[in-house]
Design a protein that fits this description.
9 helices, globular, 20% strand, alpha/beta
Length: 205
């Protein structure tokens, strides 16, 4: 398990000394059930000692968008939850994220973002390269990325321990089918080589 002290040490870098130029954007990425919410929660508690913190939770916005999609144009409901059927909802969320990030006047903007590759059924593209289409140069220039790695077997175990979804959308249980469809290797390694930003990959098993 990733230690709390290790998480804290990762972001106390020279980048923090420059936050007078604008907020520092800290992206916590990784596959389903890799521990992103845990890391976000701890970082928020730690960074509040140094300045104003905002949090953008990808999962919470997904649930809201699905609930707003009353006609079911971009998702289908089924026993155990729902399945998003195209890229529209995720693209809307990324556009909203950029607007909120650019409008933020504080010090630290924490972003939980599950990028897990391309759907093996071809319904969705949750790759890092698609994510890059939405990140503005202004946001990217002040971004630090934390990538959490965790074996599929451990993530599947954690997912089974989740109790449905909480009102704030932090811990939604994914179906076993969904976990399997997004279990192949994603494009993180190829993506990080081209962004020229600090990227820390951590084992959170």
């Amino acid at each position: 398990m990733l230690s709390l002290q290790q998480i804290s040490d990762l972001v106390y870098t020279d980048e923090m000394q420059k936050r007078s130029d604008g907020p520092l954007y800290i992206w916590v990425t990784g596959p389903f059930a890799a521990g992103k919410s845990f890391v976000i929660e701890h970082l928020s508690n730690e960074l509040q000692k140094f300045g104003k913190v905002a949090i953008f939770l990808d999962t919470a916005h997904i649930i809201k968008e699905v609930n707003d999609d009353i006609e079911g144009l971009h998702h289908i409901r089924h026993d155990g939850g729902f399945t998003i059927t195209d890229n529209v909802i995720h693209d809307r969320i990324l556009d909203k994220l950029m607007k909120e990030a650019e409008a933020f006047g504080g010090d630290f903007f924490l972003i939980e973002m599950a990028r897990v590759g391309r759907d093996t059924k071809g319904l969705r593209d949750l790759s890092y390269h698609r994510l890059s289409r939405h990140i503005t140069s202004k946001i990217l220039a002040r971004s630090v990325f934390i990538r959490l790695n965790c074996p599929y077997e451990e993530r599947a175990r954690r997912n089974e321990c989740r109790n449905g979804q909480t009102p704030d959308g932090k811990y939604r249980k994914a179906s076993a089918t969904l976990m399997e469809r997004f279990s192949p290797e994603d494009d993180f390694r190829a993506w990080k080589a081209g962004i020229n930003r600090p990227v820390v990959a951590l084992d959170n098993s």
